[in-house]
Amino acid sequence: MVKKHMKRQTVPKTWPIQRKGSKFITRPVPGKSFTLSIPINVIFKNILKYCKTTKEVKNILNDKEILIDAKRVLDPRALVGFGDVLSVPISNKFFRLTMSNKGRLNLTEIDKKEANQKPCKIIGKKVLKKGIVQLNLNDSRNILVKKDDYKKGDSIILELPSQKIIEHLSLSPKHVIMLTGGKHTGKTGVVENIKGKEIYFKTISGDTIITNKKFAFVIGKEKPLLKIQNE
Question: Structure pTM?
């Protein structure tokens, strides 16, 4: 039997919820990192506070057009992951799940135009027949490209819902990154140097941090391309 709940005390530290309260909380469906995503049921009840009960959340999902990355969602356990866009057209509200500099996930309200854009990190590549390259992205989707101009660790900005690549952000000096793991999770800054598996970057406050480059998520060139709420 698949469990639909887990103890509140066991939820990832990245979730911006109170540890005290009801004993159980919604267990996410498999598919995305629990550390970098939150079930829509938890978002509607505990963060946006649109609902008080799971039944109310289910009613909204069934009656209204709630979208994650421009696709309608009906399951209250469905995950909103890092960089995903949550759209609530009935109230003309749009949010992106980002990370605060304290290492906690947060919902940043964005405008409708930005809601059509989605940042993704390339976590792997595969060469297919006829030289077609498959980019494996952090949110489990795969994108096919004809030119192999991309590297593991780079980011791309997708247009939603077409999934057309509209921007390529390489993991390289002078580009802006946000850390999605390690003891400096949530910190944002500009890359200064990359040596092997280590990345050196300067934070907004002027501190130079050294961390594993696997934690780097490129979000812009010189400045973030997408709105973040890094507080």
Answer: 0.87
